[in-house]
Amino acid sequence: MQIGVSLMEYMTIAVLVTGALWVVARARKTAIAQSDKKPLWVSFGADFFGVLALVLVCRVAVADWQQVPSGSMEPNLRVGDRILVNKLAYGPRLPFTNTAIKLGDPQRGDVVVFRYPGDVSQLYVKRLIGLPGDIVSYHDGNVAINHQPFQLKSVTSIVPRAEDAGHGFFDENAGNRERVIKLNNDEPGASVDPVAWRGEYRNNCTVYSTQDWECTVPQAKYLMMGDNRDNSADSRVWGFLDESQVYGKAVKVIVNFSDFSRFWMPL
After folding, report:
1. What one-character DSSP code corresponds to residue 100?
2. Residue 191 catalytic?
3. Are 155 and 171 in contact (CB under 8 A)?
């Protein structure tokens, strides 16, 4: 079992410490009341216990918020987006162990927040492409699931930004799920070397070239990819995601302080 230490775990430690101080303060209530000045450990410890505990419970069981640090999910997520993470979609995850109180399973096409397999203290966000048992094929940026290709159609309605230079936008239709993806204009799908498919998961995958491969997703694993297909360190780089590392479902952009037009944008 991997132990992750992120903001959630630091909050848990803070709740435990302030909770212990609160218990001591309750036990010494009479002495503290008779004191001329409230001790600092009461003012800055025990008194914060209720607030911290409430925030922690909300973030563990209901919803959380995370900041997007990279452009791997462009154009749907931009650098600096603060995203709302629905913890009830798949079930709350307990701090440190990420143990799930399971309420549901991730679905193909979900934007999933998860603990990065290479360092479970970091949270990543990618799109779920392949479910356990799926045969996922990739050719020049186009994905197929169980030999049924996603439908791609060029999108011209999006105003490109500086970071979009040399790339095109495409509407990707996967059954009843649609989203816009971003591909390199010159060599679509060729910029991310699928090193994981050639290494640890070579028995699950066949690689013909950087932009041409096929994998069978193992049981209890997911294949994750960024919507910015040519600039995303995803399953192609670090391998399949274990279901135990799922953290929650990203559902909306709360705010981006560099672009307020993105306020409350659905994903």
Report:
1. B
2. no
3. yes
The position carrying tokens 């991997």 is 2
Structure tokens of 267? 């994903």
Catalytic residue, from 35, 87, 126, 235: name it: 126
d(CA 127, CA 73): 8
Confidence check: pLDDT of 38 > 70: yes
- 126 catalytic per annotation: yes
Selected catalytic residue, list 72, 137, 232, 235: 72
Q: What is the pLDDT of residues 91-121, one digit of tens each?
A: 988 887 778 788 899 999 999 999 999 888 8
Enter the tokens of residue 170: 């495409």
In a 3-state reduction of DSSP, which class is residue 237? helix
17 assigned to some structural domain: yes
Same domain membership, residue 239 and residue 148: yes
Q: Are 153 and 46 in contact (CB under 8 A)?
A: no
CATH number at residue 218: 2.10.109.10
Rounded to whole angstroms, what are the CA distances from 239 to 123, 163, 166, 245? 16, 26, 27, 13
